[in-house]
Amino acid sequence: MKLLLALALTLSAFSAHAGRVFNLESDTLNLGEISQSRGSSAIETFQIVRGRNTPDKIDMLFNFKETVNVCMEWDYRQVWRPGFPETVCHTDRRGNTHCTTINRGGYFETERYCVRYGETYDVTTKRIILDFDKARTLAADEKEVFEVTLFQKRETSTKVEARGTTVQGSAYEINYRTFLTKDRLVFKSK
Questions:
Q1: 127 and 110 both lie in a single domain
Q2: Distance CA 131, CA 145 (A)
């Protein structure tokens, strides 16, 4: 009875902790938009299930919102650009150089400027590669379950990182790596 109760509590905690579950059967995993409340950074935790037919590399695509400070209202004004002295030189037939200073007149120019700034959301698409190259080979009916958390550093940032842990299966070392524009979550069996 105690074992049954412990198993039920573990399963309920397990199912409440991770929101969505994805079976990795193709080379692309589209998560859609990850959860984000207004005024906070994006964060989402979900589970992925790896089987024997899971490709070695999977493109995980998702959208998130980034706060951008933009001008909400523009106005125009006339601005006086002052004149400036300019020295003009010429050479006569005898080879003598004569220079004269001329004052160039100023002029008005129309300039656009921001009156009011505000924040808006910009939807950004991100790609992270799930790399199973160094994962162990699974038997025909064997499955491994991993929990992945995606998190945005700041609300105003386009940088989203990932963390992973093993829920069911062999022990793995899971590292998030980035090189230039390629972000990867590498699964390496211990």
A1: no
A2: 15
Strands 57-81 and 28-33, sheet pairing: parallel
Supply 21's token pair: 């579950």
Please classify residue 77 by burial: count the beta carbons closer than 10 Å to its beta carbon, then call 0-12 exposed, 13-18 middle and 19+ buried.
exposed
Question: How many CB atoms sit inside 10 A of residue 185's CB?
Answer: 23
Write the pLDDT tens digit of every residue in 37-87. 777 888 889 999 999 889 999 999 999 888 888 999 999 999 998 888 999
In a domain, 181, yes or no: yes
Range of the domain at 107: 72-116
Name the residue with tokens 């009156």. Answer: 115
Q: Which amino acid is at 8?
A: A
The answer to whether the beta carbons of residues 147 and 47 sit under 8 Å apart is: yes
Structure tokens at 126: 């991100």
- Measure the CA–CA gap between 99 and 102, rounded to whole angstroms: 10
Give residue 108's pLDDT band: very low, low, confident or very high (50, 70, 90): very high
